[in-house]
Amino acid sequence: xxxxxxxxxxxxxxxxxxxxxxxxxxxxxxxxxxxxxxxxxxxxxxxxxxxxxxxxxxxxxxxxxxxxxxxxxxxxxxxxxxxxxxxxxxxxxxxxxxxxxxxxxxxxxxxxxxxxxxxxxxxxxxxxxxxxxxxxxxxxxxxxxxxxxxxxxxxxxxxxxxxxxxxxxxxxxxxxxxxxxxxxxxxxxxxxxxxxxxxxxxxxxxxxxxxxxxxxxxxxxxxxxxxxxxxxxxxxxxxxxxxxxxxxxxxxxxxxxxxxxxxxxxxxxxxxxxxxxxxxxxxxxxxxxxxxxxxxxxxxxxxxxxxxxxxxxxxxxx
Length: 318
Description:
mainly beta, five-stranded antiparallel beta sheet
C-alpha cells in the first residue's frame, strides 16, 4: 500500500484563486464595453478610449472621443451619439455614448414603458417616464412620476428653470410630425422635436420669431440678403439625403448646404446655388452668397469667417 507512504511524483494542481496582488486586465478594447474605475474617480484615459462613469449607466463604460456635429472626422459609429459631457471634476469631454433604444414612438417598448430620447437617428437613451399628461406642468429631469411627462412627451423647460416646464408631445422632425392644428414640430435633437404652438409661414418668407419653427422642417433664421439682415423661414436638411427635393426659391431648385451652421456639418439649409461663378471644389455657398473655404485653424479663416469647424470656415452668427 503506497497511498500513505512512499514518494509521489504527482504535483499539486495550481490554485485557481487569483493573486490579490495582481491587477486584472481592464483595458478598453471596444466602444461601449464595461470598465472599472478606482474608488473616488469618475474617468480615466485609456488609449483611444475614456473609461467614464455616466448617469444612466449601471457601470462605467469605454467611450471613444468625437467631435460633436462633425461628419468627415470624429463621427461615432451607428448606434452611438456624440455628446458633450460635463460635470463636477471633469473638463468638458466629447464622447461617443452608446444608445439603448431608437425611435421615440417605438422606444417605450424597448425601454420597459419609459421614454426613448433619441439624440440622432438610430441612437437614443431610455429615460424615466412619469404620469404627467401633454400640456400639463412638469420638472425637467425629475424622477418623480407626478412631475415627469408620459413616455410620448418631453418636458420643455428653460435651462435655468427646470421646474417651469410643460409636457410637449414628441414628434418626428424629419418624417410626419403628427402635431395638432396651430402647432409645428420644433427640433430639439438631430432626430426629434416637440409640438409647440407656432404660425406656419411659407418657405423663404418673412417670419417673426428667430429660432422658432415656421413650417415643417423649417426654422425662422436671421440671414443676410441683398436688402440686409432679414428674418426668413428657412428649410432645414440632412447631409446626403433628399430633404431639398422639390424645395425651390422662386423657380430655382435648392440643394442641401451643410456648411451653414457653426457647430454642425450633418444638418444644413436648402439653398440655391451661389450666384455668379461656382464655388471651388471643397467650398460651399453660404447664406450671404459667399463661398466657404477649408481650414486647419481659426486663424486661417479670419477676418471674414472667424471660426474653423470640422475643416470649414464658418461665418459669425451661424
